[in-house]
Amino acid sequence: MTSKIKYALAALTLAASGLASAQTLLNASYDVAREFYKDYNAAFIAHYKKRTGKDIRIDQSHGGSSAQARAVNDGLAADVVTMNTTTDIEFLASSGAVAKDWTKKFPNDASPTTSTMLFLVRKGNPKNIRDWDDLIKPGIQVVVVNPKTGGNGRYAYLGAWGAARRKGLTDAQAAEFVGKLYKNVPVLGKGGRDATSIFLQRNVGDVLITFESEVLSINREFGEGKVDAVYPSVSIVAENPVAVVERTVQKKGTAALAKAYLDYLYSEEGQEIAARHALRPRSPAVLRKYASTFKPLQLFTVRDYFGSLTEAQKVHFNDGGQFDKLYTVR
Prior knowledge:
This protein has helices at 3-21, 34-52, 65-73, 86-94, 107-110, 151-166, 171-183, 192-200, 213-222, 246-252, 255-263, 268-276, 284-289, 302-306, 309-317, 322-326, and strands at 23-30, 56-63, 80-82, 113-122, 142-145, 188-189, 207-211, 227-230, 234-240, 242-244, 280-281, 298-300. It is of the alpha/beta class.
């Protein structure tokens, strides 16, 4: 064996050992955040390498947020969770996977970005859908995520209920309104991306209720001009909470890396990447910069009509709750 070959083999062995020893982070996240984290992960890996000189790898797991939370609770070794409802992280906190005081670990109650719910309609809006009231008209088919499996669905449900309350209706009248809306739902999506596939690939429904950020993803994946975005007169603030999975990082020794990963979401670059993916940044400067992306919209919070997402979960989405009373799975 020549010395050149020996040196080449030695170099390959060192490279392989370096890759093997590189820390790996697993982020369990919600369905429609795929494209955002693809770009964010690349930026963070470069930032971390520049700051520390270390190579890292980041793996992703995506699905309905509640399904993801259950998977982590059942043993999926995620180092961090990046969800779209606080109840999914509260669930993990209650089982000890996440710190009880997780909302205090990062700014803005550990929610680096927000979103809201809007309507996606067929190009040209042939059914002339403009606001929540249009969703209960006879003959309108609404595609939405199952609120028992995904935060996308919970926010759609709460958005409809809150919009009714905002118009001055009582809770009893809001329940009637939401009941009529779900009578127009032919099928429930398992998660945000599944609902999008039902709407676009299976061509089911006249309108899809989904996160604002999904509009951009659809245009990128399916091509411009397939859908129009309709901003209703009022909608709900949807926070995107994050947390370190203490149970995992203690076993893997990745606590510092996990914290750095979530901290970077609040950096100017992290906020910029979020804005480019139509996630509303917390940074006022970045929000101003992307004012054309985020149309002005009257927004209400979960707190305004439901107390908290935890309370809404008990009243509306737990087995036997309000949702089960008004919707029968087809």
